[in-house]
């Protein structure tokens, strides 16, 4: 599991607090209990989709919800490595019904594709082998069926999508989910790109929950205030009109460097929670076909003894 | 300190050439502060194929005789497996071995060309819950030109083992520059000597440690030399720091292609 899973590694950190704010805001929109599937997308790669979706999912799980993350980035998905799980079988295998060697995989049993994480209440479906046609796979009704099936056993389904400016995958998904969250990066995401993504999503009839502003540089003072007062909505005011409506959710702060983060953690006097590292599962069964003959063993031992004897002689 | 990458077994691969050299290597390691050594002989199909039971006999026999020579060193069995599609069956059949019989596998790639099926093989290993450790990423020429690949591999769950000698230029200027970038961007998780001969890398370890200390600091250095290798030997999970993407300057990029065909072509064009 990676250290970037901050809400799990350090639940008391200011960043975790902001993720809880984000969760609360989403839950607030969920007054009628209808909001169960959330798509996380961005404009271009590197804005923090996977980071936000994994941490958000953990936050929901910590609140006692049964959560599943679907890694729908079948081109470059990395959710499995965040949680230290297997990359396959995953979504692409489920949707195509095939493994990497084009052998049939039984898709009747969904539980074969859902992996439990070390975090209580949280499971993931990895992206699976990289298929030649990710967009086509998502169009299939099977994706819709998958979401319906998952709703039977999970409260919240978080889908980690692809960047919407690059490929159409997320646009396809946005029609299937209850709401969409767009992750942007401060000083990185272009306004035109964001506008385009928003209009594209609206064009296909998707709903937007809000925009997460990630990688915001912020002074230590503001950071503490954010922590104590738990809301950044005020700071969102006064931005451009087109963005304003969508900025209902919290902004997320990802400190640029670790030393800064440590400094901040010291200031807020948060005790560090250290978890004993987990022992890894072993799946390789050594069948011990290979053997060593008695002659070979004695030969090795003789070689060593011979060397040691000679050395003794030389010493004398 | 634990040395996670060595070729100390005699006449198994291109490492130690005699039992004498093996003992000398272990002594050298002790002198510079190592408490444990993982023997990671090459396993390369068709070239170096000494199976696990045979190497086990070697390791045990050597370990038994360390005391008589007044050396205190723990020895563990492993392999540096040359990337292959048969990796899983090699492990299952007891031909090649994981590190200390854990889920960690040290593997190497061809030095000059990126294997086409790189990601497939990594996926397959991970399906078997193996944690792949890539040996000396800084030495591959295709990684020197495209260090983004290392970022990508880390994101896919591969751990990176740098060689001690790279930072002082043992493998050339390119490897030296690129490994420094890796250190600075959280891209190295383990350190190993990759020792083959006596009187090469081990005597230089103190000098290297002080250089590394100035780059990554004492705490991180301890993590790479001791804590993480220990977690590997215990089959415990290593939680890694988020890596940063490396950006090479144009000058550095030019340096990385220096001497190869593309570099020569550009040089010619400039001369004209």
Explain this structure to me?
The complex is a heterodimer of chains A (316) and B (272). Chain A has 14 helices and seven strands. Chain A has 316 residues and is of the alpha/beta class. Chain A has a single domain, classed as P-loop containing nucleotide triphosphate hydrolases (Rossmann fold, 3-Layer(aba) Sandwich). Chain A has a seven-stranded mixed beta sheet, with helices on both faces. In chain A, a hairpin with a 5-residue loop joins strand 3 and strand 4 (122-125). In chain A, helix 2 (14-29) packs across helix 10. Chain A starts with 5 loop residues before the first helix and ends with a helix. A seven-stranded parallel beta sheet of chain B has the order 1-2-3-4-5-6-7. The mean pLDDT of chain B is 91. Helices cover 43% and strands 15% of the residues of chain B. Classes of the chains: A alpha/beta (316), B alpha/beta (272). The interface between A and B is large, with 42 and 46 residues.
């Amino acid at each position: 599991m990676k250290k970037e899973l901050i809400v799990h590694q350090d639940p008391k950190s200011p960043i975790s607090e902001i993720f809880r704010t984000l969760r609360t805001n989403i839950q607030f929109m969920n007054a009628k209990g209808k909001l169960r599937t959330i798509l996380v997308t961005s404009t271009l790669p590197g804005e923090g989709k996977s980071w936000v979706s994994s941490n958000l999912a953990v936050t929901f799980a910590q609140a006692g919800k049964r959560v599943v993350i679907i890694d729908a980035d079948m081109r470059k998905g990395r959710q499995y490595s965040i949680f230290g799980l297997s990359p396959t079988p995953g979504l692409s295998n489920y949707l195509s019904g095939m493994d990497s060697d084009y052998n049939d995989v039984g898709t009747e049993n969904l539980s074969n594709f859902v992996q439990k994480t070390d975090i209580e209440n949280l499971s993931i479906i990895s992206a699976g082998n990289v298929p030649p046609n990710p967009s086509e796979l998502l169009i299939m009704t099977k994706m819709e069926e998958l979401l319906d099936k998952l709703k039977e056993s999970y409260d919240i389904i978080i889908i980690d999508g692809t960047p919407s400016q690059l490929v159409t995958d997320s646009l396809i998904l946005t029609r299937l989910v209850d709401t969409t969250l767009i992750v942007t990066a401060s000083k990185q995401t272009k306004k035109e790109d964001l506008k385009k993504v928003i209009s594209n999503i609206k064009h296909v009839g998707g709903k937007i929950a809000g925009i997460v502003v990630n990688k915001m540089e912020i002074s230590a003072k503001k950071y503490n205030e954010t922590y104590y007062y738990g809301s950044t909505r005020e700071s969102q005011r006064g931005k451009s009109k087109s963005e304003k409506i969508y900025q209902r959710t919290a902004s997320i702060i990802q400190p640029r460097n670790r030393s800064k983060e440590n400094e901040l953690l010291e200031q807020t006097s948060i005790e560090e929670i250290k978890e004993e590292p987990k022992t890894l599962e072993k799946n390789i069964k050594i069948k011990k076909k290979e053997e060593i003959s008695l002659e070979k063993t004695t030969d090795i031992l003789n070689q060593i003894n011979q060397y040691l004897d000679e050395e003794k002689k030389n010493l004398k | 300190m634990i040395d996670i990458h060595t070729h100390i077994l005699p006449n198994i691969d291109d490492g130690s050439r005699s039992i004498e050299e093996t003992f000398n290597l272990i002594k050298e390691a002790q002198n510079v502060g190592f408490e444990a050594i993982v023997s990671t002989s090459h396993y390369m199909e068709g070239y170096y194929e000494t199976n696990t039971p045979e190497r086990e006999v070697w390791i045990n026999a050597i370990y038994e005789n360390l005391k008589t020579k007044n050396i205190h060193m723990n020895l563990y069995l492993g392999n540096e497996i040359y990337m292959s599609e048969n990796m899983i069956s090699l492990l299952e059949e007891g031909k090649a071995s994981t590190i200390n019989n854990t889920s960690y596998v040290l593997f190497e790639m061809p030095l000059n060309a990126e294997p086409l099926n790189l990601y497939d093989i990594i996926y397959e290993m991970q399906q078997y819950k193996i944690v792949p450790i890539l040996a000396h990423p800084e030495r591959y020429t295709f990684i020197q030109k495209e260090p983004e690949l290392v970022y990508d591999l880390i994101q896919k769950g591969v751990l990176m083992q740098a060689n001690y000698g790279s930072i002082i230029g043992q493998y050339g200027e390119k490897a030296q520059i690129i490994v420094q970038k890796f250190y600075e961007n959280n891209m190295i998780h383990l350190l190993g000597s990759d020792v083959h001969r006596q009187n090469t890398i081990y005597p230089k370890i103190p000098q290297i440690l002080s250089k590394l200390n100035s780059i990554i600091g004492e705490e991180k250095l301890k993590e790479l030399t001791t804590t993480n290798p220990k977690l590997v030997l215990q089959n415990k999970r290593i939680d890694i720091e988020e890596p940063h993407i490396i950006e090479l300057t144009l000058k550095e990029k030019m340096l990385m292609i220096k001497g190869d065909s593309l570099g020569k072509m550009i040089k010619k064009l400039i001369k004209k």
